[in-house]
Amino acid sequence: MALEEYHKLRDFSKSPEPKGGGKTMENIFVVHEHDASHLHYDLRLSIGGVLRSWAVPKEPPEKEGVKRLAIQTEDHPLEYADFEGVIPEGMYGAGVVRIWDKGEFVIEKDEGDELLFELKGRKLTGKYALIKTRFRGKDSWLFFKRK
Ligand code: MN
């Protein structure tokens, strides 16, 4: 159900991306570096059996004081946390996908417009927030490291 849009956007006979449907529980996050038409970072947090996902146009903040715009995108299957590869030309998201960071994810607060959590990755460690903003349309959030 939650992965309907993910499946709709992809042709798994041509894309090496995982279909999903196996795993349902894991306290992980991953950040993919996605060299598509524009290089960006995809932040994915394991919440409710899927990877909730945001596209971050600039490098995610390793320190406090930097706020990044994060555009929410379709939920991805948990298996996507292990995915690295090349999405062929002509496909949705065509380009090279690499894992930029990955680690344990601990949710502290999930109240619709406000997500507070802790990340234990190699690059991103500590307390972070995603706060919904109306600044750039309905899917825009701010992503930053907090005290
Ligand atoms: Mn992407």
Strand content: over 45%
Oligomer: single chain
Question: Bound compounds, please?
Answer: manganese (II) ion
How do the SSEs run, as a string of H and E? HEEEEEEEEE
Category from helices, strands and their pairing: mainly beta
Contiguous helical run count: 1
> The biggest beta sheet, please?
8 strands, antiparallel, barrel
Q: What is the mean predicted local confidence, pLDDT?
A: 94
Number of strands: 9
Taking Cα atoms only, what radius of gyration do you get, to the nearest Å?
A: 15 Å
Q: How are strands sequenced across the largest beta sheet?
A: 1-2-3-4-9-8-7-6
Question: How are the secondary structure elements laid out?
Answer:
Blueprint: H1 4-8, E1 28-35, E2 39-47, E3 50-56, E4 67-76, E5 85-87, E6 95-110, E7 114-120, E8 125-132, E9 140-145
Antiparallel strand pairs: 1-2, 1-6, 2-3, 3-4, 4-9, 5-6, 6-7, 7-8, 8-9
Bound molecules: manganese (II) ion.
Descriptive notes:
This protein is mainly beta and 147 residues long. It contains 1 helix and 9 strands. The protein has a domain of 101 residues. 3% of the residues lie in helices and 50% in strands. An 8-stranded antiparallel beta barrel has the order 1-2-3-4-9-8-7-6. β2 and β3 form a beta hairpin. The mean pLDDT is 94. The protein binds manganese (II) ion. The site of manganese (II) ion has 6 residues, from β2. Manganese (II) ion binds next to β2.
